[in-house]
Amino acid sequence: MIINFAYDHSPIKNENQSYIDGGSQMFHNIAYHYNPYDNEKFYCINGTYKYFYADYHVPLQYVVDIYDDGIKTNYVVLDKILETDEKFVYMLTFRHFAITVENNDIINIFKKFSPAFIEAINKGQCLLLLNDSHESAYYKNRSNGIDTTIERLLQNCKEFGLSLEHICLLTGNPINEINSQIKIIFWQCFETALRIMRGKQHIPEKSENIKKFLCLNRMPRDHRYYFAYEMYKRNMLDSFNFSLNTITNEYKEELISKYHLDQSTFNNMITTLPWILDTKDFQANHWNRIDQSFMSDNLIYIVTETLLGQYIIPSYTCFITEKTFKPISYGMPFIIVGEYLTLKHLRSLGYKTFHDYWDESYDEIGDPVERMNAICDLIEDLNKRSVNDLLSLTNDMKNILLHNQNIINERRPEQPVMDIIKKYGN
Q1: Does residue 27 sit in helix, strand or coil?
Q2: Given a cut of 80, is residue 177 above it in pLDDT?
């Protein structure tokens, strides 16, 4: 079976290895993104670059290419494939799906669709994929429970005469409900990405300079500085390998106000930044970076996820990124500074967590500040134990760590996406 992936422009080859904006590159005012698993391959970014983005963590065409099912793909140009009767897939990867759709009066995502393209979608020649799997929002209005994002999308489709039968929305948030009018598929794309990128990592022997905790922080997030502040205030940083960038005075004042931080303590902490561990580059998240020292020099991985949760019970999102799947791939135990019921969601996927070894009740706390305080208390309690004691504890977890490594290598979270794509094969 051959699956045609259609793009707005022809493919190009990488000539100078210079990238912009998360692995994207401009050629003749056209945005392309590279395949992180084969950087000689570039894919055109469909749509207007201001609103659409690169699926650079895990290009879907590449996922299909390596899928063990006798399926191959072609890169085709949209205008050319429309001159034929061959079926094809066209994907728009959104920067911010909910914002884009809800402001469609200004952005109007479908206005550049030609009549021939709309006809191809409506008659089933084309599968239109709307990709929100990598930066997924919650689609309901939190104040009234109305599915405002999906309602606006349905209005847009109706306005441009688009049949819903051959449109599919990929979400990275399992809390989003399946809508009866439009296909919504949950894809844990970062789990797919870590499986492909890393595979099963050998768990090395621990080094002599071992630390109790590892905490990597790249992009600035409020809760990451709040967590760092708590560890600093509790005199625990000597137990960490910790990375964190410096911040502006304006941002510092915002954090002090938001979390009611002790100004003197926080100011003292800021003067010690940046905390550099493996790279001085804090402008990218280095999602695919791996260093054997992460595993050999540290015992417990403290994951500071992208989101902590902005709302009182419940937090309405359960968006998990590569940050969580890294320690799983590395074969390391973890504590997640993240959203409400993240551990519960991981267990629903088949992973095991560590409630037999320490208190994981923080996962069930809806209020994000209370959850953060519970996590900090847990880490402070663990820090009272010696390195040898924690080393013995993590050795006892070996079966869980190997189980989790096996799960990430065996699971195929992209399967529901594959099932629908195969209907548009040739």
Answers
A1: strand
A2: no
User: Residue 292 corresponds to which tokens in the numbers above?
Assistant: 């054997």
Contact present, 137 and 149 (Cβ < 8 Å): yes
Residue 377 half-sphere exposure toward CB, CA atoms < 13 A:
10
- Asked if residues 408 and 329 have their Cβ atoms less than 8 Å apart, the reply is yes
Question: How far apart, in Å, are the Cα atoms of 50 and each of 30, 69, 194, 239, 263?
Answer: 11, 36, 27, 43, 38
Cis amide prior to 368 (ω within 30 degrees): no
| Domains of the chain and CATH, by start | 2-189+413-421 (no CATH), 196-410 (3.40.50)
Instruction: Locate 371 and state its tokens.
Output: 């959850």
Cα separation, 5 vs 89, in Å, equals 5
Short-list 202, 201, 204, 174, CA closest to 187 = 174
| Helices vs strands, H then E, count in the chain | 17, 13
pLDDT tens digits for range 338-391: 998 999 999 999 999 999 999 999 999 988 999 999 999 999 999 999 999 999
CA distances from 380 to 213, 353, 358, 386 (A): 11, 19, 12, 12
- CA nearest neighbour of 94 among 214, 227, 189: 189
- Tokens 């439009």 locate to 182
